Amino acid sequence: MARRVRIDRLLVERGLFESRTQAQSAIAAGRVRANELVVARPSEEISADAVLRAEPAHPYVSRGG
């Protein structure tokens, strides 16, 4: 059985984010999936061999109108 690791640490280990803070922000925004399920909490422990996907942040914010 694969070891279980905090999702925020695993995202940094795999190079998807530069810091745990960035990973935690992406998780809070709902932009991270593990095995096709949206990750709810940065402290969630998942299998170290899980398939991870992170959507890029939007480069700008719409001002509407």
Quick synopsis:
With 65 residues, this protein is of the alpha+beta class. The protein is built from 2 helices and 5 strands.
Description:
- The protein has helices at residues 7-13, 20-28, and strands at 4-6, 32-34, 37-38, 45-47, 52-54.
- It has 65 residues and is of the alpha+beta class.
- The chain has one domain (4-54): RNA-binding S4 domain (Structural Genomics Hypothetical 15.5 Kd Protein In mrcA-pckA Intergenic Region, Chain A, Roll), CATH 3.10.290.
- The strands form two sheets. It has a three-stranded antiparallel beta sheet.
- A hairpin with a 2-residue loop joins strand 2 (32-34) and strand 3 (37-38).
- The mean pLDDT is 92.
Helices and strands, with pairings:
Blueprint lengths: L3 E3 H7 L6 H9 L3 E3 L2 E2 L6 E3 L4 E3 L11
Antiparallel strand pairs: 1-4, 2-3, 2-5
Main features:
65 residues, alpha+beta, Structural Genomics Hypothetical 15.5 Kd Protein In mrcA-pckA Intergenic Region, Chain A, three-stranded antiparallel beta sheet, two-stranded antiparallel ribbon, 2 helices, 5 strands, 22% strand, elongated
| Class computed from helices, strands and strand pairing | alpha+beta
Q: CATH homologous superfamily - what is it? A: RNA-binding S4 domain
Enumerate the strands of the largest sheet in spatial order, edge to edge or round the barrel: 3-2-5
SSE topology string: EHHEEEE
